[in-house]
Amino acid sequence: MDNKRVTRRARIALALAGGTALTAVVAQIPANATAGQAAPHRAAAASAAQHAFRSAGTADGTSYDDTYYKDAEGKTGQALKDALHRIISTTQTGKLTYDQVWDALKETDQDPDNSGNVILLYTGRSQSKDANGGNPDDWNREHVWAKSHGDFGTDTGPGTDIHHLRPEDVSVNSIRGNKDFDNGGTKVDEAPGNFTDDDSFEPRDAVKGDVARMILYMAVRYDGGDGFPDLEPNDNVDNGTQPHIGRLSVLKKWSEQDPPDTFEKHRNQVIFDKYQHNRNPFIDHPEWVGKIW
């Protein structure tokens, strides 16, 4: 892609975002055009501007195809996975310490209806940002890819990657523990809609897809390089300390059943803009799940 073309698209996108698109469109209509001629000129210019906006990256971050993802376009299978790994690992220029994760989650998971609160992943409860810690009703930092699955700890790296770290009630986090993900089990009284048994955990319907896409992001981002384990989903449960989490077949269904919503897209954008500067590709392109696995 020609850099000048990308820059020109980005300028149009910014104009659209700032509400100046109409001025730009009108400026492209010849001064001597009749009313009948002006309409198709305006429609064509508006269509081109909308395409440029999508290509440069929309406000909610749903399309960076001509820029961020250009090296992944048209690929499938291992080639797509390898391309996405290169993209999201090389652009992750912001890496957090475990202490810095606290403040990051207060922004990435902020309640859109109450700026003083965060939304907890499994319970769905809106809770004060300041009520974080180790008491049973506090919220803490849930590793969706359990850190014992690969034993990567909380040093900077997979243990602090906020694409899979979420606020959660301390006691519910403890119930989930390091279990794999699967359907079924008994109800979690403190988190209605969640279920658990001896070796698996099923999150509430509203975040099933979120969980799946976080797990699959981790499998693409961490492939055995940089001194970190090669994380891979499989179709098992009770994976123990192996660098695997299951069940992959269930996670794929969850991603289809619960597509990315506004909250998840906004979270991806905040991480990209302010913290790690990389993206979860399965939020931007959920169809890529089926093209890799």
Secondary-structure map:
Blueprint: H1 3-17, H2 21-27, H3 35-56, H4 77-90, H5 98-108, E1 110-111, E2 114-119, E3 126-128, E4 139-143, E5 165-169, H6 170-176, E6 180-181, E7 186-187, E8 195-196, E9 200-202, H7 208-221, E10 232-233, E11 244-245, H8 248-257, H9 262-275, H10 281-284, H11 288-292
Parallel strand pairs: 6-9, 10-11
Antiparallel strand pairs: 1-2, 2-3, 4-5, 7-8, 8-9
Task: Describe this entry's structure for a reader.
- The protein is an alpha+beta fold.
- It has one domain.
- It is built from 11 helices and 11 strands.
- The strands form 4 sheets. The chain has a 4-stranded mixed beta sheet, with no helix packed on it. A 3-stranded antiparallel beta sheet has the order 1-2-3.
- Strand 2 (114-119) and strand 3 (126-128) form a beta hairpin.
- Helix 1 crosses helix 3, helix 2 packs across helix 3 (35-56) and helix 7 crosses helix 8.
- The radius of gyration is 21 Å and the shape is globular.
- The two termini are 29 Å apart.
- Mean pLDDT is 85; it is low at 1-56.
